[in-house]
Amino acid sequence: MNSLYNSALRQGSAIRRDLDALAEGIQPSPALLGQINVSLTSFSRTIEDYNKLAKQELVPDKQTKAYERIKNFKTEQAEYRERFERLKTEGEAKQTVHSHAELLGRRPHNTSTPENPYANTQPSPYPQQTQGRYGGGGAQLAFGATPEHADRESHALREQSFFSQTNSQLDEFLERGSDCGEYVGD
Fold first, then answer.
1. How do residues 117-173 score in pLDDT, each as one tens digit?
2. Which of 81, 107, 133, 138 has the highest local Cβ count within 10 Å?
3. Number of C-alpha atoms within 13 angstroms, CB side, residue 136?
4. pTM of the model
């Protein structure tokens, strides 16, 4: 029983050491993650074996002491598993951010195209005219539309602006594609 207790203590300290190494690392290596996972499984089996021997103990004082140790080991095991999962998710998040930054950093040229081209809606260059206080409705807008048709005119202008932006973006995408094709051909 003492050998299992000493083994559990050594496994616990090894798991702590591995978790500290994982916390210090920039990105988690699959080898270290696997090693910690195997160590946790082995620690769990050692606790189970120690529990079986504690049940067979004939001296009541030693049995209660063994049950206290088992309780402490299980608490440590739960803490180790929680810390391992937390460090693993933090490492994955760091890796995702690093990969995203690296991928965006590889772009050979800066572009004015936003990630969402539809998010940049610009107000109409032709402001809507409102009727005066006394309803003087004789004003006309840029293309001869009356104030009643101002919404229609501003929509047509936004649509035209959208089409011209789309055409220029498509031309830019085609140019990029041909540049990529030239690089592949070389």
1. 565 555 555 555 555 444 445 455 555 656 667 788 888 889 999 999 999 999 998
2. 81
3. 5
4. 0.53
> Contact 15/80 with Cβ under 8 angstroms?
yes
- The string of DSSP letters for 130-177 reads PP-TT-------TTS--GGGHHHHHHHHHHHHHHHHHHHHHHHHHHHH
| Sequential DSSP letters for 82-130 | HHHHHHHHHHHHHHHHHHHHHHHHT-SS-----SSTTS-PPPPSSPPPP
Amino acid at 77: Q
| CA angle (110, 115, 121) in 5-degree steps | 110
Among all chains, which residue has been given the structure tokens 């608490």?
A: 75
Tell me, what amino acid is at 102?
A: E
| Residue type, position 153, single letter | E
